[in-house]
């Protein structure tokens, strides 16, 4: 938290009473965790099915709070664009292949 005091003085020397505002500086971004549900098979690569749920959770510990979470699914032939996260999702309409 930081306190900022401010005032002004006009050209003939009249000084405004000091005003004060308190602000909280938040330069720390939230952190998001991805949980991949079952069914899945994990080696150096993670294999999933179209029934596998993906869940995102963001935390902002002592900051201003999480405003929204977004995610994107892509590979060389497909790009979902950024999607707002509202609930867990599955890859139900995608073709077999590698996705980021």
Strand content: 25-35%
- Total beta strand runs: 8
Q: Helical proportion?
A: under 10%
Shape: elongated
User: What is the mean pLDDT?
Assistant: 97
Neighbour order of strands in the largest sheet: 1-2
| Distance linking N and C termini | 39 Å
Cα radius of gyration in angstroms: 24 Å
Question: Helical element count?
Answer: 0
Task: Report the biggest beta sheet as strand number plus sense, adding barrel if it closes.
Answer: 2 strands, antiparallel
- SSE run: EEEEEEEE
Low-confidence stretches: none
Helix and strand composition category? mainly beta
Describe what you observe in this structure.
With 100 residues, this protein is mostly beta strands. 0% of the residues lie in helices and 32% in strands. Strands 1-2 form a two-stranded antiparallel ribbon. A two-stranded antiparallel sheet has the order 3-6. A hairpin with a 3-residue loop joins strand 4 and strand 5 (46-48). It is elongated. It starts with a strand and ends in a 16-residue tail after the last strand.
Task: Provide the descriptors you would attach to this structure in a database record.
single chain, 100 residues, mainly beta, two-stranded antiparallel sheet
